[in-house]
Amino acid sequence: MNSIDQLISDWQKTSISSNLVFTHKIPSVKAKWVDFPNDIHPWLQSSLQSIGISSFYLHQKIAWNKINAGSNIVIATGTASGKTLCYSLPILNDLLLNKDITALLLFPTKALTEDQKSKINQINSKILTLSNNSTPYIRPAIYDGDTPQHDRLSIRNKANLILTNPDMLHVGILPHHTLWERILSHLKYIVIDEIHIYRGVFGSHLANVIRRLKRLTNFYGSKPQYIMTSATIANPVELAEKLVEEKVELIDQDGSPYGERRFIFYNPPLINQELGLRNGIVNEGVKLAGDLLSHQVQSIFFARSRKTVEITIKYLQNVYQNDTELMKGYRSGYLPTERRTIENGLRNGILRTVVSTNALELGIDMGSVDAVVLMGYPGSVSAFRQQSGRAGRKQEASLSLLLASSAPLDQFIINHPDFILGANPENALINPDNPLILLAHFKCAAFELPFSKGDSFGSLNWEQIKSYLEFLIISREVVNQNERFLWMADAYPANQISLRSASPTPILLQCEENNQKRTIGEVDFESSIWMAHPGAIYLHQGETYLVHQLDLQNHFAKLSLINSDYYTEPKKNIEIQKINEIQNEEFSNYQKSLGEILVSTTVIGFQKLRWFTQEVLGVEPLNLPPTELRTVAYWLVLSPKVVNTLRSENLWKSDPINYASEWRDIRRIVRERDHFTCQLCGSRERETEFHVHHKTPFRKYLDHKEANQLDNLITLCPICHQRVETNVRMRSGLSGLCYLIAHLAPLILMCDSQDLGAYSDPQAKMTGMQPTVVIFDQFPGGIGLSESLYRQEKVLLQNSLDHVSHCNCLDGCPSCVGPAGENGIGGKKETQAILNKLLECNK
Amino acid sequence: MESLFDKLKSLGVKVGSEFQPIGPRKKYPIDTVMGGEWINNLQGQFYLVNENYPFGYQHGSLSIEEEILFKTLLNLTSINERNINLNQILFIDTETTSLSSGAGTIIFLIGLGFFTETGFRINQYFLENPFDELALLTHINNEIAKYALVISYNGSSFDLPILKSRFALHKLKSPFTNIDHLDLLHLSRRVWKARISNCRLKDIENSILNFYRREEEVPGYLVPQIYFDFLHTNDARPLNGVFYHNQMDVLSLALIFSLLSKLVTIPYGTGDNGSQDLLSIARLFERNRLWQESAQLYRLSMEYGLPENVKADIMFRYGNICKRLKNYEEAVEFWSASFQCGSYDAGIEIAKYLEHQKRDFTNALDWVNRIFIKLDEELNVITYNNNKPRDDLIKRKIRLENKIKNIYIAKNE
Are B113 and B258 spatial neighbours (Cβ–Cβ below 8 Å)? Predict the structure, then answer.
């Protein structure tokens, strides 16, 4: 019996067996081998044989044939299925036959680029001995930010296989294209590896970088072929075609072998059934790590955030003190040398347990790991498959274990495993025509080559292009004459555009040590407000820093190293304004709409939480400007009829509070009495007036005079007030509904949890003071998710109702409608009632 | 229906002021500000301003001379075709729309200087309308092709790449493929870096040519904005300063060339003898493996007296040159003097010479011991190559001791 089977069998004998909610076995798959193609160059064949490759997988041959036939393709077979050879072999073969052609290979990370170069070098070394030529036929080179200046000239002059990344292409190559004339004019192949990474903002930027590249290949008279690879997403062809704006063929018949795969869905035990609280995933994870270690099972634990990685490793090292050498954390913030050491450690078996963020998700070769533990659902089926795919790359049996958190989505999946295992993974969505992104790339494109009437830019027509150019004329960056447009400014536009954000200027994080200022990293403008606000504890490369100052005008933050026993969590306040409505539909119980909104997020303060125990050590208010996001949203508004029905059934508690007219005076008296000090946290009023809160809720009184007795009133700062209100306020079914559908929507929409934002308000200004729930795209200009939700709302509502109805908690819990407060009443029932009313209309 | 402008604005894009096209509001067009002429060709038009500087014209402390003996200077460079006349040399400086390079940087003013029968002439070609760039480039292409050597200041990293880029963008063949290029920045640095920290053209102009520009001078970083403003307002008056700036750049360039030629040609010009210039030039010859000339210059500078801080190094180098010229006695003499001034490496050279050339092991060992003493004193040990480890010396000592022992044994067998 192999160690995996032994482990599972042992688990089933203990109390852990009750946590193993679901197990599944996928039998092993044999490889589908085919002969080498007829037209393979003898040197290439020799070289492959010398490294142990004596035949092709089926899909590699299909790729070979299609590429030679001139098609654009996207290869979407599974993890570790030999996708690289699908594109590298045809290209290498062609380089042996045609002296002048060139190829450009794009990789999303430096590590991947280096990996691929070594693979090419491996094949090339045998060819070099066979060819015995002074000028090698195959001349690969990495060209990125780290390439030394003195090498760059000779690479441009001599190399015919350029390995680079989108950022370098965008800022280092395209703007200097005259130096790349030889390569661009003979460009035959463009390879884009791992296109599933290029979703959202990043993908939208890349599509535009490709548009600029196409302008240039057109200028230099070449028409390259596009070869892409992708992990399993629902729409590889759609994504591929959107990225390169050409017809693309799909190859997904996977001919590679797979060992037997075991899946286990693991639900931590309940520690408080009423409140629905389960044991945390870090605790459970650490327990499981012990079992895996003792059974000699090499494993990777995937955590959802860097914080969790750090916490888990700390915890592991505390608990398994004799084995600390066998366990390591891994994430992108580490230095490349550190990461290489860890990858090697996994490969040669010295490291037994690695805790990582999704950095390992990208196809770096590190041999087989026996088991993968996903600490919490990684947010998408795609990520689930990629992370699971890390286990068992050869023919041995492997284990993939999903450790569920108490989040509604995780709990939903635990109860509906088919959603994940059978499911289509997500659609990777991009929006290359997003105005902000287009504008940025028009600047770059104009810098690279003038525009003339009738020019095209991807699929845009001249009228559309012209409107952007006219905008650039107004901003004094472009001049025109007779419908010709020239870049005329002192700037180098590509430098100011980051491909990973829709907004340009990052905030530099600077640390002062020994009188020397050092930039330790950067965050984009919007994120800086909640990640690097004054007082925040910022984690970077395993070190903790305290943020002293955040200067948004001058784009930097000042930090210093600190040994703290706590970390911080920001508290955000959201306000939504409606810009316009694109579509709406009215039903008897509610109205649904699709439109554009402006979301203002203000970080009003933050909590200090002790490591491991989550004990709240303190709360501090902040005075920071709001960040604005203009995007597309779906919202629903409950009709007055429904509100009345629910109220009469004693379920509606979101009525606005009718305070007396003397309220303003009363407030002032209370604040004076309390010395303008928050009675919970002790902070003093500065610029903003503090709130006055009813200890026993207003609603519980019949007479407002009684409710407003001074001894029922207390001064609270905005943060404490919000916390208290949330606990004490009569649980509103609306917020429960919002919580629930916001958590389940990503599954239905097949997107990542972080792609959506949510908001609810029983008296929303944007809908004229009506009870409203809003779900929006976390992406300026929108990316198609809300639109999708508008269409698929019935599925979401139905699944939400199912989920909350089957939840075992008494009255609401983190797994369904949200954590029940101390005085929360009727959250669960209210949400169910509302859902029922909503679905009535949909029948 | 919302316009793109409004939409972008609401998405957070910062927008500037009013829309001002390149209009026909010609207030102060170029031909009313600069005296020149319009050149028209098939591709369009541009404006040409020229200036003639007769022989004898004074620029700072130098004047434009009819005869410049530049052959020796060219021998100190990597220029291939050295057998050319003065009137086959073209001096270039450009003004661009950006101080960074890339496909979007345009050259809007290019100054070409060359020697004629009567003096030095500078032609300044101005791109009055950026859409006429092809006209300008076509013309320049033909002009440049007439010359055998192009000289610039920092042109190898700035002017020429941008110029080549402009040609490429208009699909014109670059005229530089058969022409040599000499960037005087590098030579200037070699000659004057010892006494001028940053050898920008302006610094050389001030300190070496003793020339100070007039008030109308415009500093380099302001130039792009002046051009942009001109495009929007059609007021060419501020361009005066840009033309002046460019003109002085070309003129000074030619005079620096003249001066450098003199400095390296026997009888070693009118350089500031007695200063570091002689030494720098000696070093220049040495780098180019011209030992005789280099030795001559070192001797000359030693006659004038060497500054204390370079004595050891210079005498060490001179010793090395003597060795190359096979003047061993003289070599040892200077190495010795250098060693006295603190050069550890000079001492090693003596030991090496004694061991391998003269096979005088006893004296060689003697020197090794002397060096040990010096090392131990650690006083003022100036080394040429800082990585000479002590172990090396120990190995040498042991080897010599063995050789001496072997001879003794051989003698007594």
Answer: no
